Amino acid sequence: MTETQSKSRQRAEIAFGDVTSQFFARSQAFEEIDMLAQARDEKTMRLREARKAKEAAELAITVKPATKKRTKTPVS
Known about the structure:
By secondary structure, the chain is an all-alpha fold. It is rod-shaped.
């Protein structure tokens, strides 16, 4: 089964190997980009939730119960 291949067949095999390796390299690069984007989105969500919780806590501290506004009564 060790037949020699023609030169055109050898060139075609090499070209096919180059194309497939480029395809797999591209796929791997896209997977890495997607993984980084997902990690970034998760971190953004955690930070947003923490910021909203902090703002709600600060708002709860600064907001005082509404008191009835006193009006001046005319002095007679």
